[in-house]
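Hi support team,

I've been running sequence recovery on a batch of backbones for a student project. Most finish fine, but this one hangs at about 90% for roughly twenty minutes before it completes. I'm not sure whether the input is malformed or the queue is just slow. I've pasted the C-alpha coordinates below so you can try to reproduce it. Let me know if you need the job ID as well.

Thanks,
M.K.
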Protein backbone atom coordinates (compact mmCIF):
# COMPACT_ATOMS: atom_id res chain seq x y z
CA UNK A 1 0.00 0.00 0.00
CA UNK A 2 1.41 3.39 -1.00
CA UNK A 3 1.64 6.23 1.45
CA UNK A 4 -0.48 9.33 0.89
CA UNK A 5 1.32 12.58 -0.01
CA UNK A 6 2.38 14.64 2.96
CA UNK A 7 4.24 17.79 3.90
CA UNK A 8 6.95 18.06 6.53
CA UNK A 9 7.25 20.70 9.21
CA UNK A 10 10.29 20.91 11.48
CA UNK A 11 9.38 22.09 14.94
CA UNK A 12 11.58 23.28 17.78
CA UNK A 13 8.83 22.54 20.30
CA UNK A 14 7.73 19.06 19.22
CA UNK A 15 9.11 16.23 21.35
CA UNK A 16 8.38 13.35 18.99
CA UNK A 17 7.35 12.63 15.40
CA UNK A 18 3.71 13.48 14.86
CA UNK A 19 1.16 12.95 12.09
CA UNK A 20 -1.61 15.44 11.48
CA UNK A 21 -4.58 15.16 9.19
CA UNK A 22 -5.81 18.66 8.43
CA UNK A 23 -8.91 19.81 6.61
CA UNK A 24 -9.82 19.35 3.82
CA UNK A 25 -7.57 16.26 3.64
CA UNK A 26 -3.94 17.21 3.98
CA UNK A 27 -1.28 15.26 5.83
CA UNK A 28 1.45 17.01 7.77
CA UNK A 29 4.36 15.37 9.55
CA UNK A 30 5.80 17.32 12.45
CA UNK A 31 9.46 16.55 13.00
CA UNK A 32 11.29 17.59 16.17
CA UNK A 33 14.46 19.54 15.50
CA UNK A 34 16.66 16.80 16.92
CA UNK A 35 15.15 14.04 14.75
CA UNK A 36 16.65 13.35 11.35
CA UNK A 37 14.37 13.75 8.33
CA UNK A 38 15.48 10.35 7.05
CA UNK A 39 13.17 8.72 9.63
CA UNK A 40 10.08 10.38 8.16
CA UNK A 41 9.21 8.04 5.24
CA UNK A 42 9.29 4.93 7.42
CA UNK A 43 7.29 6.66 10.13
CA UNK A 44 4.60 7.62 7.60
CA UNK A 45 4.59 4.14 6.06
CA UNK A 46 4.12 2.53 9.46
CA UNK A 47 1.04 4.65 10.04
CA UNK A 48 -0.36 4.53 6.52
CA UNK A 49 -3.31 2.37 7.54
CA UNK A 50 -4.35 4.78 10.27
CA UNK A 51 -3.68 7.72 7.94
CA UNK A 52 -5.96 6.41 5.21
CA UNK A 53 -8.78 5.94 7.69
CA UNK A 54 -8.34 9.47 9.06
CA UNK A 55 -8.11 10.92 5.55
CA UNK A 56 -11.29 9.15 4.46
CA UNK A 57 -13.11 10.55 7.48
CA UNK A 58 -11.77 14.03 6.99
CA UNK A 59 -12.69 14.14 3.28
CA UNK A 60 -16.17 12.78 3.97
CA UNK A 61 -16.82 15.46 6.55
CA UNK A 62 -15.39 18.24 4.40
CA UNK A 63 -17.37 17.12 1.35
CA UNK A 64 -20.55 17.71 3.31
CA UNK A 65 -19.62 21.38 3.47
CA UNK A 66 -17.25 23.14 5.79
CA UNK A 67 -17.94 21.95 9.30
CA UNK A 68 -15.31 23.43 11.52
CA UNK A 69 -15.16 27.17 10.92
CA UNK A 70 -12.03 29.19 10.21
CA UNK A 71 -13.95 32.27 11.25
CA UNK A 72 -16.78 32.56 13.73
CA UNK A 73 -18.98 35.57 13.14
CA UNK A 74 -21.33 36.68 15.89
CA UNK A 75 -23.26 39.52 14.24
CA UNK A 76 -25.50 40.20 17.26
CA UNK A 77 -22.52 41.39 19.28
CA UNK A 78 -20.34 42.50 16.34
CA UNK A 79 -17.62 39.95 17.06
CA UNK A 80 -15.47 38.00 14.66
CA UNK A 81 -13.09 35.27 15.80
CA UNK A 82 -10.38 33.59 13.75
CA UNK A 83 -10.09 29.90 14.60
CA UNK A 84 -7.05 27.67 14.22
CA UNK A 85 -6.92 23.95 14.96
CA UNK A 86 -4.25 21.62 16.13
CA UNK A 87 -4.04 18.01 17.13
CA UNK A 88 -4.05 17.49 20.90
CA UNK A 89 -4.91 14.53 23.07
CA UNK A 90 -6.35 16.75 25.80
CA UNK A 91 -8.91 19.00 24.18
CA UNK A 92 -9.06 22.70 24.93
CA UNK A 93 -9.84 26.09 23.46
CA UNK A 94 -7.33 28.82 24.12
CA UNK A 95 -7.90 32.44 23.39
CA UNK A 96 -4.47 33.04 21.91
CA UNK A 97 -4.88 36.73 21.27
CA UNK A 98 -7.60 39.37 21.06
CA UNK A 99 -9.81 37.75 18.39
CA UNK A 100 -8.11 34.42 17.89
CA UNK A 101 -9.01 30.99 19.18
CA UNK A 102 -6.72 27.99 19.16
CA UNK A 103 -8.63 24.71 19.32
CA UNK A 104 -6.62 21.68 20.37
CA UNK A 105 -8.54 18.46 19.83
CA UNK A 106 -8.02 14.79 19.02
CA UNK A 107 -10.48 15.03 16.13
CA UNK A 108 -13.37 16.78 14.49
CA UNK A 109 -15.96 15.57 16.96
CA UNK A 110 -14.06 16.88 19.95
CA UNK A 111 -13.24 20.16 18.21
CA UNK A 112 -16.92 20.61 17.46
CA UNK A 113 -17.87 19.97 21.10
CA UNK A 114 -15.22 22.37 22.33
CA UNK A 115 -16.47 25.11 20.03
CA UNK A 116 -20.00 24.53 21.27
CA UNK A 117 -18.81 24.89 24.85
CA UNK A 118 -17.00 28.07 23.91
CA UNK A 119 -20.14 29.43 22.23
CA UNK A 120 -22.22 28.60 25.28
CA UNK A 121 -19.76 30.41 27.52
CA UNK A 122 -19.63 33.45 25.24
CA UNK A 123 -23.44 33.60 25.09
CA UNK A 124 -23.58 33.41 28.91
CA UNK A 125 -21.15 36.28 29.18
CA UNK A 126 -22.92 38.51 26.67
CA UNK A 127 -26.66 37.86 26.58
CA UNK A 128 -27.72 38.15 30.26
CA UNK A 129 -26.14 41.62 30.78
CA UNK A 130 -27.77 42.78 27.56
CA UNK A 131 -31.16 41.53 28.76
CA UNK A 132 -30.63 43.21 32.14
CA UNK A 133 -29.80 46.50 30.47
CA UNK A 134 -32.92 46.32 28.28
CA UNK A 135 -35.00 45.42 31.31
CA UNK A 136 -33.87 48.62 33.05
CA UNK A 137 -34.33 50.68 29.89
CA UNK A 138 -37.88 49.45 29.36
CA UNK A 139 -38.83 49.25 33.03
CA UNK A 140 -39.82 45.57 32.68
CA UNK A 141 -38.48 43.34 35.48
CA UNK A 142 -37.62 39.70 35.16
CA UNK A 143 -36.57 37.14 37.71
CA UNK A 144 -33.82 34.86 36.33
CA UNK A 145 -32.21 34.40 32.96
CA UNK A 146 -30.78 31.19 31.53
CA UNK A 147 -28.94 30.64 28.26
CA UNK A 148 -29.50 27.35 26.44
CA UNK A 149 -28.86 25.56 23.21
CA UNK A 150 -32.23 24.96 21.62
CA UNK A 151 -33.29 23.62 18.27
CA UNK A 152 -36.68 25.22 17.80
CA UNK A 153 -37.09 28.22 20.08
CA UNK A 154 -35.31 31.53 20.32
CA UNK A 155 -36.46 32.24 23.82
CA UNK A 156 -39.20 31.83 26.38
CA UNK A 157 -40.62 33.44 29.47
CA UNK A 158 -42.34 31.64 32.35
CA UNK A 159 -45.12 32.76 34.68
CA UNK A 160 -42.37 33.25 37.30
CA UNK A 161 -40.77 35.76 34.91
CA UNK A 162 -37.82 33.51 34.25
CA UNK A 163 -36.45 34.17 30.80
CA UNK A 164 -34.63 31.66 28.68
CA UNK A 165 -32.52 32.75 25.72
CA UNK A 166 -31.20 30.59 22.89
CA UNK A 167 -27.42 30.96 22.61
CA UNK A 168 -27.80 31.02 18.80
CA UNK A 169 -29.12 34.56 19.15
CA UNK A 170 -25.47 35.52 18.76
CA UNK A 171 -25.83 34.59 15.06
CA UNK A 172 -28.68 36.99 14.23
CA UNK A 173 -28.47 40.73 13.60
CA UNK A 174 -28.17 43.04 16.64
CA UNK A 175 -31.61 44.55 16.04
CA UNK A 176 -33.24 41.14 15.89
CA UNK A 177 -31.49 39.82 19.00
CA UNK A 178 -32.67 42.97 20.78
CA UNK A 179 -36.20 42.37 19.50
CA UNK A 180 -36.27 38.81 20.85
CA UNK A 181 -35.28 40.11 24.28
CA UNK A 182 -37.97 42.78 24.14
CA UNK A 183 -40.41 40.07 23.06
CA UNK A 184 -39.63 38.00 26.15
CA UNK A 185 -39.59 40.99 28.50
CA UNK A 186 -43.08 41.96 27.28
CA UNK A 187 -44.24 38.47 28.28
CA UNK A 188 -43.51 39.42 31.90
CA UNK A 189 -46.56 41.71 31.53
CA UNK A 190 -48.74 39.56 29.22
CA UNK A 191 -48.01 35.84 29.22
CA UNK A 192 -49.71 35.38 25.82
CA UNK A 193 -49.75 36.77 22.29
CA UNK A 194 -52.91 38.86 22.68
CA UNK A 195 -53.38 42.22 20.92
CA UNK A 196 -52.50 43.90 24.22
CA UNK A 197 -49.24 42.02 24.23
CA UNK A 198 -48.35 43.03 20.65
CA UNK A 199 -49.38 46.64 21.36
CA UNK A 200 -46.85 46.67 24.19
CA UNK A 201 -44.14 45.24 21.93
CA UNK A 202 -44.98 47.81 19.27
CA UNK A 203 -44.77 50.66 21.79
CA UNK A 204 -41.09 49.79 22.30
CA UNK A 205 -40.31 48.67 18.77
CA UNK A 206 -42.64 49.90 16.00
CA UNK A 207 -40.87 47.79 13.31
CA UNK A 208 -40.97 44.56 15.29
CA UNK A 209 -42.55 42.65 12.36
CA UNK A 210 -39.33 42.88 10.31
CA UNK A 211 -37.40 41.27 13.15
CA UNK A 212 -40.06 38.61 13.65
CA UNK A 213 -39.62 37.73 9.94
CA UNK A 214 -35.83 37.55 10.31
CA UNK A 215 -36.14 35.23 13.30
CA UNK A 216 -38.32 32.81 11.32
CA UNK A 217 -35.57 32.46 8.70
CA UNK A 218 -32.60 32.57 11.03
CA UNK A 219 -32.75 29.00 12.39
CA UNK A 220 -31.59 27.75 8.98
CA UNK A 221 -28.66 30.14 9.02
CA UNK A 222 -27.11 28.81 12.23
CA UNK A 223 -23.76 27.20 11.34
CA UNK A 224 -23.86 23.40 11.54
CA UNK A 225 -21.14 23.13 14.17
CA UNK A 226 -23.21 25.29 16.53
CA UNK A 227 -26.37 23.19 16.38
CA UNK A 228 -27.26 21.35 19.57
CA UNK A 229 -26.98 17.61 19.14
CA UNK A 230 -24.86 17.91 16.05
CA UNK A 231 -22.13 15.27 16.06
CA UNK A 232 -23.48 13.43 19.12
ZN1 LIG B 1 -43.90 35.09 22.59
Amino acid sequence: MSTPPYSVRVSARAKRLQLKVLPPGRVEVVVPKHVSLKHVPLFVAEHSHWLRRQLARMTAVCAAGPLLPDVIRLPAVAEQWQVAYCQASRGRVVRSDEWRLQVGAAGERQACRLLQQWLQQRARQLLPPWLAQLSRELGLDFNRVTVRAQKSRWGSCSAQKNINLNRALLFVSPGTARYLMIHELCHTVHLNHSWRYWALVESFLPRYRDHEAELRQAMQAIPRWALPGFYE
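--
Follow-up from support: It reproduced on our side and the slowdown came from queue contention, not your input. The two ends are 33 Å apart (CA to CA). No action needed from you.
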